Amino acid sequence: MINTNEFMAGLGKQVRFHRMKAGLTQVQLANMAGVGKTTVFDIEKGKTSVQIDSLLAVLGIVNIDIQFSGPLSMEYEKLMERENN
Amino acid sequence: MINTNEFMAGLGKQVRFHRMKAGLTQVQLANMAGVGKTTVFDIEKGKTSVQIDSLLAVLGIVNIDIQFSGPLSMEYEKLMERENN
DNA sequence: AGTATTTTACTGTTATGGCAGTAATACTGA
DNA sequence: TCAGTATTACTGCCATAACAGTAAAATACT
Lengths: 85, 85
Hints:
2 copies of one chain form a homodimer.
Chain A: H1 4-21, H2 26-33, H3 37-45, H4 52-61, E1 65-69, H5 73-83
The first copy, chain A, binds a DNA duplex through residues 25-27, 35-39, 41-42, 45, 47, 49-51, 54.
């Protein structure tokens, strides 16, 4: 089971690391992502209640990829392929 | 760049697939995840403005894993390791 | 077909996330 | 040290996510 606090804390640190390597300030990143500076600050701080769209917008700018996979994902994909033929 | 709509739509379908395979109704999943039934419905429908904590709670129940990785993730990890020694 | 269950959709309420503005603190470089 | 920049923290407002309740539509079951 995923610990939301840990997950977001880790993600926040990665965002900060990538942002700084890119030479961006929080405000610059916020503007590029189309969110408020407070949101970037909150994400880096590990806030757990940010909205997905805000987070994905920020992650997109700093080039962090998000992936999901469950035990039945492969089965699902194959099923979808079949449907599209 | 990630398309938020597509991402959430895909994730929603995976959630639904996993939930049904687990033999759970939306209401049951909602109760187990500690969120409202509307939230589960919204996630499966691909709503892009749900909050991370709600989403992670639901994903945890249906055993879907979320991972993130950026071009500098490895570098960051190594840096952290060094700090902890 | 008929019934029970589930899902979808809508509503009104409540709680809070997102936001800009601001100010104080911390950091960086000359 | 001093000045400029960035981050952190706080405030108040607004928009809306989360929620339960309800009802209709869709699905499943016998």
